[in-house]
Amino acid sequence: MTWNASLALDYTRHADKTVAHFRHDGPLRILQSLYPEGQAICHNVIVHPPGGLVGGDTLDLTFTVGAGAHGLVTTPGATRFYRSQGEPALQRTRITLDAGARMEWLPLETIAYSGCLAENRLTLQLAPGAELMGWDVTAFGLPAAQQPFAQGHFSQHIEVPGVWLERARIKASDTLLLDSPLGMAGHRCIASLFFVAGSKLARQRREQALDAARQIIDAHALSGAAGATSPDGQIVVVRVLAPMVEPAMDLLKQVWKVWRGHFWNQAAPSPRIWSV
Prior knowledge:
This protein is mostly beta strands.
């Protein structure tokens, strides 16, 4: 028996306030809109009461951000892909920004349990002048609980159509990829933080963002397994390998705070749900 759900969340700007409207089908909700930074930035938390996906489940999340609006979306806990009996599980997220819109997509980590057959897709469509900051953190198995990722496979797809595509298919049986120094080098967490613009970023703006990220990386315990790059004039990315989620998330949060100030001249108070 599958348990599918969808959520559509629209942000619009009314005077000086960003307002969120949502529609849902199945067990997928947002909590009350919050304004810890003032009315211009609307914070929302996505809640999925079942707590994870099993074989055959599909979650569809769609976000649109209107001109001048600024939305921040996070989650109260990890997204979990559990063991499958043969059917794949899919989470599909689409984010569309109008000109002058801003969005922050900051879910907590995704956990691929041993035996899962899963795909996590993220598609970003930005109009000229729109900007988005987001991250993706994926853990394989539960190493701290002595539950390795021993079976199954996980596909990760992140795309800005026509500009940037990153796709990986990680099989538990592919020990060369998982353990080789040219692959994940024995790490079981992969993470990326990305800043995406709807039009080319000024070279100085990109280079200053890279310099700021590299300073944080160099001072971090994961300095040997992280890097910052700009694969396209519209994108700046930090990539991390880590033995588990916590150090990777710590690094990304540090860079997110600095980039928020650099790109948007905004302070970066952590969403309250992260400390619960």
